[in-house]
Amino acid sequence: MAKLILSMDGLVLKEIPLNKERMSIGRKAHNDIQIENMAISGEHAAVVTILNDSFLEDLNSTNGTLVNGQAVRKHFLKDGDVIELGKYKMKYLAGGETVGESSDYRGRDFHAESSPFSVTAGGNPINGPAGISTPNLPAATIRLLSGSNAGRELQIVKTLTTLGKPGTQVAVITRRPQGYFLTHAEGKTSPSVNGHPIELEAHKLIDRDVIEIAGVKMEFFFKG
After folding, report:
1. Which end of the chain has fewer beta carbons closer than 10 Å to its terminal beta carbon, N or C?
2. Strand pairing of 196-197 and 192-193?
3. What is the dihedral of CA 212, 202, 2, 30, to 10 degrees?
4. pLDDT at residue number 165
């Protein structure tokens, strides 16, 4: 399991396993990782972990977030990356598993090129080499119902499918042995399923769910 090593001035303060899909970091008590320091915003940043991949998002903090000395808004985390929040540092360790080798986002910012709405498939095909065997999982498709690409269909054959408008709202669909799951990845508000915002944890999708992300509606359905 991946983890963060929290330190200040070279002194290790805490080891934090990334055992939730979304872990918030900030000064306020409700955060998963609370750092009581005035240089840290109330809700400063978040780490989202999907399968073996983790990425960091700065939540419009006052003093910003650095990774390896560079200011970032969204950053795909690699083993050994050092996150800096004020005087505090958190070293990202991938653990026993190699993080990110199956992802198209490895080694670059998660933030994609600006576009009205983007759809990106990342990772290896599920039943291909280094994929996850899901022999009983039906094939699924996303059909855009609104926006300039209305009618476009995308079959979900990759581990990760990213949907949305970078800088506004982004969500990720992951294909797992248990089914297809939607996770909020970026933005102040969560995407909705059938008119209801999803929670912070991954939301399992069912046939004919209507998803809305960044103002664009789309239908999730099984083909076959």
Report:
1. C
2. antiparallel
3. 90
4. 80
Report the pLDDT averaged over residues 145-159.
Answer: 84
Please check whether residue 191 is in contact with residue 210, taking contact to mean a CB–CB distance below 8 angstroms.
no
Q: What is the DSSP string of the chain?
A: --EEEEEETTEEEEEEE--SSEEEEESSTTSSEE---TTS-TT-EEEEEETTEEEEEE-S-SS-EEETTEEESEEE--TT-EEEETTEEEEEE-TTSPTTTT-TTTTS-SPPPP-SSEEEEEEEETTSTTS---TTPPPEEEEE-SSTTTT-EEEE-EEEEEEEETTTEEEEEEEETTEEEEEEEESSS--EETTEE--SS-EE--TTEEEEETTEEEEEEE--
Mean pLDDT of 138-144: 91
What end-to-end distance do the CA atoms of the chain give, in Å?
36
User: 33, 34, 36: which is closest to 23 by C-alpha?
Assistant: 33
List beta partners, residue 85. Answer: 88
In this structure, the strands spanning 169-176 and 179-186 are antiparallel
Q: What is the mean pLDDT of the chain?
A: 80
3-state secondary structure of 170: strand
Cα–Cα–Cα angle for 57, 154, 222, rounded to 5 degrees: 105
